[in-house]
């Protein structure tokens, strides 16, 4: 009799665990679908202070799943740099550079990051930009809520694309 009870109990636990796994998978799928609603090239970023369009979704790359940098060199005409951002702790691959602000309205946009001590890239805060898709304009608070996929930063590809690749001759 005790054995039968144990079996029922085990079955219940297994069902609960399975439900949890399936729920998590469905949530991930929905999030993924939301992230792929628009292609990155169809999305435009404008300064949330002065509404100047400054970049497209495909100009953005993500480093270590958290830092969103702009790899399009033309972006530099839209911002100015401010004071050095204090270094609060050490990171293996990057360190903060100067603050970056909108060239037109001086809105705080984020900061430069020095990646692997050799490449300096503007790292932007999503809260400083509005995002125009083919359907609407949004103001996401977090990068994970943007409705387009962001490619991962590829250091070697970037170095090559800006003509800093190794020329060993
Ligand atoms: Zn602005």
Automatic annotation (TrEMBL):
A Gene Ontology cellular-component term: cytoplasm
Nucleotide-binding as UniProt keyword: yes
PROSITE patterns given in the database record: RLR_CTR (PS51789)
Chain ranges of the RLR CTR domain: 33-160
GO biological process terms on file: antiviral innate immune response; cytoplasmic pattern recognition receptor signaling pathway; negative regulation of RIG-I signaling pathway
A Pfam family per the record: RIG-I_C-RD
GO molecular function, a single term: single-stranded RNA binding
UniProt KW keywords: ATP-binding, Helicase, Hydrolase, Nucleotide-binding
InterPro entries reported for this sequence: RLR_CTR (IPR021673), RLR_Helicase (IPR051363)
Name by which UniProt lists this protein: Probable ATP-dependent RNA helicase DHX58
Species of origin: Clupea harengus
């Amino acid at each position: 009799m005790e054995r039968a009870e144990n079996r029922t109990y085990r079955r219940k636990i297994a069902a609960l665990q399975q439900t949890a796994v399936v729920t998590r998978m469905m949530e991930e799928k929905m999030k993924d679908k939301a992230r792929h609603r628009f292609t990155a090239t169809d999305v435009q970023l404008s300064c949330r202070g002065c509404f100047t369009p400054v970049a497209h979704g495909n100009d953005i790359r993500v480093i270590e799943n958290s830092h969103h940098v702009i790899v399009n060199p033309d972006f530099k005409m839209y911002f100015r740099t401010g004071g050095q951002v204090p270094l609060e702790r050490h990171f293996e691959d990057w360190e903060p550079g100067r603050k970056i602000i909108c060239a037109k309205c001086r809105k705080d946009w984020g900061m430069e990051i020095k990646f692997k001590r050799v490449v300096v890239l503007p790292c932007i805060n999503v809260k400083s930009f509005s995002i125009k898709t083919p359907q609407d304009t949004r103001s996401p608070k977090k990068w994970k809520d943007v409705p387009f996929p962001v490619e991962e930063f590829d250091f070697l590809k970037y170095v090559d694309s800006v003509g800093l690749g190794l020329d060993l001759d």
